[in-house]
Amino acid sequence: MLDCKLLTDKLLIGKQISRSQLTISQGTIYNEDMKAELLNAIRPTTLIRSAKLIDHLGLDVTIASETFQHTGSFKFRAAYNVVLNDDAEEFIGVSSGNFGQALAYACKLLNRKCTVIMPANSASVKVEAVRSFGATADLIDVNVVSRYERLKQLAAEHPNAYLASAYDDQLVIDGNSTLGDELAKYNFDAVVVPVGGGGLISGIIQSFCRNGVMTEVIGAEPAMANDAARSLKAGELIANENEPQTIADGTRTLSLGKLNWPIIQNGLRTIVEVSEDNITTALKLYFGLANLKSEPTGALSLGAVLENREIFDNKKVCVVVSGGNVDAAIYAQMII
Amino acid sequence: MLDCKLLTDKLLIGKQISRSQLTISQGTIYNEDMKAELLNAIRPTTLIRSAKLIDHLGLDVTIASETFQHTGSFKFRAAYNVVLNDDAEEFIGVSSGNFGQALAYACKLLNRKCTVIMPANSASVKVEAVRSFGATADLIDVNVVSRYERLKQLAAEHPNAYLASAYDDQLVIDGNSTLGDELAKYNFDAVVVPVGGGGLISGIIQSFCRNGVMTEVIGAEPAMANDAARSLKAGELIANENEPQTIADGTRTLSLGKLNWPIIQNGLRTIVEVSEDNITTALKLYFGLANLKSEPTGALSLGAVLENREIFDNKKVCVVVSGGNVDAAIYAQMII
User: In A, which residues are within 8 Å of B68 by CB distance?
Assistant: First the structure.
């Protein structure tokens, strides 16, 4: 079924790594019943071609926008797959952002309990979104207890609950791989994907591998939060010392996940480090030339094109917009 | 082929008008070759269902967004159909907004010359958009010469040019009717459509009539620019005395077009008059709950739902977002 050789032969060009080291998983998505139920629940990505943006960049670029996915980001693909494939009655996640909303909504749809641990100073619109889906927002003072200490406490109190990681979970990667399956049909030369914990990009790599697709996957990471780019260069998983304060708040992770790292290490050659200015410029271009509301993290992939235009020359490029959830005040400031 | 009887019987309930007065046209779109070429050129509308918006309104609402149509509004459907069906070498239009861009791009695609008459104080982003598609932006000082005087001048100078109206043209109505054909498949109880010159709503009525669809069409017009609502009540075409200064700049027309009026008069019962506040609230709801960037005019249909919630109770409603082109400064001010 799987022909990763083609893909990996291409990826291995210029890399000192033997094929036997490859550990790219097919994932568990090939349970056809579950796959059908997952595909029925998610909304296909929205492909947008803007003549103005194409002219402006002088580049054949297609936008794959997950901003209209349920709960406004790709995270719903992952969250729904997690809840669908485990029979726990309760799910506990840690998130001040998109994964929390996605997990809460997936639990609502599948009739499970859900608790999302969030810093007490999270944007109220995000806390409200989690609650609007019937989940408990467990607000913590991060100066008193860290998110992961609180997760341990809750896990001890609810020993049967599923502790859901936003990225470091094979079910998360499998769920995200459905986006790869959609993009695999279009024969893009390159697909550019935002990188935080690595959940989305590892899912897309896994899918392209499964589908025998030659499309190159390119990561887009804020220069201020370049742990994945540094890891790829060093050949080992490197973590940030502190949570990076990039405007792309979806990438404020300390490091890639342990399951995501080997897929990323073997599945791609390039992670473009994007300046904060280019994140803002990309977000403005989406607003002005494509009528697309993107969150800063979602604009990373177009930011990578601005940052390193020459590597995309004469290529049929797809930029993945991972989500659209952003506070009005921040957005208003960024577009003017 | 056409069974308007079903539709008109329903529409006639409570109206003192005999069926013999009906003049709804099938349009010329049934030239199958032209239709195929038109459908190939346009981008299907983007249907969005937001759980957050549905919960917030307590209403089964689907968004049909034309914001990702080529040039960012439904106007491209009309403009392309006009240029496709006339062999003039040059097209002249009057528009400071969406029709100008759409006509310019249609002419670019079909290799025709294009001139768009625009007030010299039009937003520079709109002038640039017209020029970016290779058209001439004919900038006039409206204190010296009116748009239509200038149109007459240009028409005299270019006797073979096609003078393209943004709404009062059967080819425009036919082009816009393609959106109706898309929506006809979904068995909505009601479709709510912004009304300016009446080009879009008359196209949708024409399509539903052609398709024998029972979906009710409801107009959404700014209360500040309520000439269509007044006309419908009076049973005769009434014009505004001055260009109304509503935030919904796409509806700053003096009156419905002569071709649009009879279709509107016979094809719908209700035009909701929307306050400026509800236009802004609707635009904010799209931003916050659906990740959708709408222009103020595009938000009119959701504004109508807010304005007159009870007439939509227990209905499967579709709100048409006619376009997404809005200046960043205006938009930023509206969302915060």
Answer: 46, 48, 50, 290-292
